[in-house]
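Hey, I'm writing a tutorial for new members on how sequence and structure tokens pair up, and I'd like a real worked example in the thread rather than a made-up one. If someone can provide the structure for the chain below, I'll link this post from the tutorial.
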Amino acid sequence: MKIAIGQDSHRIDYENKGKKLLLGGVKFDEEYSLNGNSDADVVLHSITNAVSGITCKNILGKVSDEMCKNGITDSEEYLKEALKYLKEQIIHVSISIECKVPKITPKIEEMRKNIARILNISEKHVGITATTGEGLTEFGKGNGINVFACITVD
């Protein structure tokens, strides 16, 4: 059994009205998005980094930058690329999201379902929690979103 942690954060872009906010592959109805070359899905990026922690094959960075240059900006594709190197089976993923906005709770079940689909595991093995951190960080003040993901593989 192995356990790995992945993390990612992006600044909120309140000016870009043409880009949709995606978290866990789920569209949010907000009038803002996250800064990034890709769709900037911090939830999928954190899971991708956790998978890289198991496989020792970094996807976010050089590999994802090359994918972006080729027009692939969907973070689900980065996660799928990371999963190609994973020999073990993911048995659980736990995700912690820190942000002031958007409200995460109304979308948790949809996010769990989508992440379970991507990882090919049961929804009951995808846990998601959210916090504002009492406004102590830039994320809790509404300037960005920070996500930690922990995966367990066997």
